[in-house]
Amino acid sequence: MIELLGKNLTELQAIIVEAGFPKFRAKQIMDYIYKRYIFDFQAMQQLPGNMRDWLTTHCAISIPEIVTEKTAPDGLTKKLLLKLSDGNQVETVLMKQHYGNSVCVSSQVGCAMGCVFCASTTGGLYRNLDTHEIVAQVLLFGSLLKERIHSIVVMGAGEPLQNYTNTINALRLLHEKEAFDIGYRRMTLSTCGVVENIYLLADEGIPITLALSLHAPNDAIRREIMPIGAHYNLENVLAAVKTYYEKTDRRVTFEYILIDGINSSIENAHELGTLVKDFPNCNVNLIPVNGNEHIQLFKPSRRQMEAFKNIVASYGVAVTVRKEMGDAIQAACGQLKVQHAQKQSE
After folding, report:
1. The domain 2-60 is classified under which CATH number: 1.20.120.450, 3.30.230.70, 3.30.40.230, 1.10.150.530?
2. Is 283 annotated as a binding residue?
3. How far apart are CA 10 and CA 17, in angstroms?
């Protein structure tokens, strides 16, 4: 079967023409999928009957099954646990922001990064997601809401720069006007710091926002909580990030999870400020560690977090403390999947 979901307009036109149908039908199919959320070929009534029959026999639009759906009490966060065609499961999150609907997508089933604060790495990496499986996460929320998706953050399970080609292809498709028509400047990709692929991304010509999962102000702490720190030291990671900024002129965000007793001291705040102050227009996003059943890590007090923020800001750096959305529904990476697996084993 030919998977149509995830194909851009040029790819879809080639499939349609090779099958003997007019090229313009490809745009109609994309309109049905991405604008009307119609996934049954027989329901695509603008297409001739013989074409609908051919599509039904030879093609597929693989929409994942929703295993679990959770909505936060305030209605602003919705999380889906999805079952893929091979039985693997991934999570995706919708966040209703003041500027519109933002979808956080996963790029892999599981994760190989081994960060001690993240539930998605618990079982290791199973496989990369295909382009259509990344796009389907956004498509599902669009079909549920019947509302425009404003922005995309690639911050779900997995390291997107380890699944480079499929992730970039998905972002390019989400940008196409025939699909979701989401501007690149409304897309953010988060990476733990796969140095060689940060350089590749800088040359792609797509001005997305790069968010570095920094989480430590020095190599010693980073190696302790992020095993990738043993492969890429901060000097090399930050050099790649600076190149990305210089080539794209896009503001860089540094993600920094606050863990009490590990990386949140006054000294750490000064180290962090010194580390990032030379990045023009950068933003430091402080993230209180999310309550997580598989680890014993805790966020600092509100007073400690405010003091940490103020010290970093004193270096002339823009600093925010991430709004905690979705704690009540375990919206952090991998939590819902772990919880579901535990229930199944009981």
Report:
1. 1.10.150.530
2. no
3. 11
Q: Provide the 8-state DSSP code for 33.
A: I
pLDDT, tens digit, 9 for 90 and up, residues 289-316: 986 555 688 999 999 999 999 999 999 9
Residue 91: which of 113, 68, 74 has the closest Cα?
A: 68
**Alpha carbon distance 60, 38 (integer Å):** 12
CB 136 within 8 A of CB 128: no
Three-class DSSP category at 311: helix
Tell me whether residue 104 is one of the annotated catalytic residues: no
- The residue annotated as part of the active site, out of 91, 133, 255, 271, is 91
Per-residue model confidence as pLDDT tens digits over 29-42: 999 999 999 999 99
110: β partners: 125
Residue 134 and residue 167 in contact, taking contact as beta carbons nearer than 8 Å: yes
The answer to whether 301 is a known ligand-binding residue is: no
Partners of residue 191 on adjacent β-strands = 212
CB atoms within 10 A of CB 217: 23
111 labeled part of a ligand binding site: yes
Instruction: Please tell me whether 190 is known to bind a ligand.
Output: yes
Question: Per the annotation, does 290 bind a ligand?
Answer: yes
The predicted structure's pLDDT at residue 6:
96
User: What type of residue is 346?
Assistant: E
Q: Could you tell me the residue ranges of all domains in the chain? A: 2-60, 65-345
Question: Which residue is catalytic, options 3, 133, 333, 346?
Answer: 333
Q: Is 265 annotated as a binding residue?
A: no
Beta strands 108-110 and 125-128 are: antiparallel
Which pLDDT does position 335 carry in this prediction?
47
Asked if residues 325 and 314 have their Cβ atoms less than 8 Å apart, the reply is no
What confidence score (pLDDT) does residue 344 get? 40
d(CA 164, CA 283): 24
CA distance 244 to 324: 28
What pLDDT does residue 122 have? 81
Q: Give the integer Cα–Cα distance in Å for 335 and 292.
A: 7
User: Would you say 200 is a known binding-site residue?
Assistant: no
Please tell me the CATH code under which domain 65-345 is placed.
3.20.20.70
